[in-house]
Amino acid sequence: MGIISWIIVGALAGWIASMIMGKNAQMGAIANIIVGIIGAFIGGFVMNLLGFGGVDGINISSILVAILGAVILLAIVKAVQKR
Question: pTM of whole model > 0.90?
């Protein structure tokens, strides 16, 4: 997957995950992209542990995996910030 694909999937996944977690107003476009890209790695890792495919291009399954990872990332950040 090329860098442009990572940015597109990351932006979309980060934005949707921030809306799910209620952080959309606190995050900008760059933060959404970063959260989405890191979320794609986390989601791919989790899905590989479960025996499924990870992120492999711009398609619905890849975006869903990236959203899952981004939600996990935002939940971890929220838990750490509460302390």
Answer: no
